[in-house]
Design goal:
This protein has 175 residues and is mainly α. It contains 8 helices and no strands. It is flat and about 65 Å long.
Length: 175
């Protein structure tokens, strides 16, 4: 096996370990405290993990829940998650959280309270907000080279904020 393949296998194994160890706790952390809009979701998640319905979650219940979640995404049953299976998990999480995220966006930006967003309420995009900074030659236009440099600079700045391999974010790669 080549060094590149060994590195890829090791990275996938590490990602799988993070995935398995963080599934239940990450999901519960996303739901926040038991008040407001998150309460019902947190209660539902807790009830799903608390298999003996005693109102408490044990380490054994968490381990069993993580194993069940892992198995649910291990579509081919080989005991590991490949790129497609990990993508399916991320898509499922994205799809699940999207209604709440869009509702929060609407609440924050709907200035006239009509339940929808106009172009003005949507606000400026990233290039509009940072036009002067991106237009490094100050010619009043952004060239493709300037846009590429801005994207590269964003990646570098974002990398400086990361802490270690998992990006310093709660739950690692699987937030």
């Amino acid at each position: 096996m080549t060094v590149l393949k060994k590195s890829a296998v090791a990275a996938l194994a590490l990602a799988g370990a993070v995935f398995v160890s963080g599934l239940a706790t990450d999901a519960m952390a996303q739901m926040g405290p038991g008040d407001g809009e998150h309460g019902p979701r947190l209660a539902e998640m807790f009830a799903g993990i608390d298999t003996d319905s005693n109102g408490k979650v044990t380490q054994e219940e968490l381990v069993a829940h993580r194993a069940a979640m892992f198995a649910a995404f291990d579509a081919n049953g080989d005991g590991s998650l490949n790129t497609e299976e990990l993508a399916a998990r991320e898509l499922a999480r994205f799809t699940e959280t999207m209604p709440a995220r869009t509702a929060r966006m609407l609440d924050r930006r709907d200035a006239n309270g009509d339940g929808s967003l106009s172009l003005d309420e949507m606000g400026d995009g990233p290039m509009e907000n940072h036009f002067a900074r991106i237009d490094t030659d100050n010619d009043g236009a952004i060239s493709q080279a300037e846009a590429e440099a801005a994207v590269e600079g964003f990646g570098e700045r974002r990398g400086k904020r990361k802490h270690g391999m998992m990006g310093g974010m709660k739950g690692g790669w699987f937030n």
